[in-house]
Design goal:
Blueprint lengths: L9 E5 L4 H12 L3 E6 L2 H13 L3 E6 L5 H14 L5 E4 L15 H27 L5 E5 L12 H21 L6 E6 L6 H6 L11 H11 L8 E4 L2
Parallel strand pairs: 1-2, 1-4, 2-3, 4-5, 5-6, 6-7
Length: 236
């Protein structure tokens, strides 16, 4: 691998203010990509941006709420005005929601989970599809969960959203495979030391699971590896 295999490339990471998103952004920056960092909170994004710059990389922050389609459209326009193509799109942002039995699911909360975990992802793909098609090395990598493929008690709402997200992303990859350089991959992080994990497993010792950097490094590596469209892997 060359020292900066993504030099001159542009990457966009959602949910980049902490956890897996932040780790992925730092790893992509270390590989030479200019990284656009998105999340709702500017403070966390600024910390990640500073870390990338301190390591010799480059990044731009773009605070936004992905549940607002207008924000996504504005971001796509701003990026298109400045850059020619988008080479790496990491769809990491997601909401856990409450863990509850299916009959006890709050319909309003589930609607919010589906809005971010599915509808906003579709809006991101639609907004950035033209820029991705212009890349000679386009990678769209989605962060998923095992409960999207293997249903688990009390995880029905989140699992349903991840199953829908996977279907959406894989369908897009199938549509693009023969007409563009876009390749799609799904990554299941497995047990990882994140705020979402801590909320789902409050009694777990954080040091008993791997740090987000392990997952971030693997996602960044997929940005330059060759693989068949619809690639899926679990980290750890």
């Amino acid at each position: 691998m060359t020292e900066n295999p993504l030099a001159g490339r542009l990457a966009l990471v959602t949910g980049a203010s902490r956890g897996i998103g932040a780790a992925t952004a730092r790893a992509l920056g270390a590989m030479g990509a200019h990284v656009v960092l998105t999340a709702r909170t500017a403070g966390g994004l600024e910390e990640v941006e500073e870390a990338i710059h301190a390591a010799g990389g480059s990044a731009t922050i773009a605070p936004l709420d992905l549940t607002e389609p207008e924000s996504i459209a504005r971001l796509a326009t701003a990026i298109e005005d400045r850059w020619q193509a988008l080479d790496v799109l990491v769809l990491n942002a997601a909401q856990l929601g409450s863990l509850s039995a299916v009959p006890a699911i709050d319909p309003k909360e589930m609607a919010r989970v589906l809005t971010l975990n599915v509808s906003a992802q579709a809006a991101m793909i639609a907004a950035f599809d033209p820029l991705l098609r212009r890349s000679t090395l386009a990678r769209v990598i989605g962060v998923t969960s095992s409960v999207g493929r293997k249903p688990r008690a009390f995880w029905g709402s989140y699992g349903a959203s991840k199953a829908a997200f996977e279907a959406l992303l894989l369908a897009y990859g199938d549509e693009m495979a023969e007409i563009s350089a876009i390749r799609v991959a799904l990554v299941d992080p497995g047990a990882t030391r994140t705020a979402m994990r801590a909320r789902a497993y409050p009694g777990e010792e954080p040091r008993s699971v791997k740090p987000p950097e392990v997952v971030g490094d693997r996602i960044a590596a997929l940005a330059i590896e060759g693989y068949a469209d619809g690639h899926f892997e679990r980290v750890g």
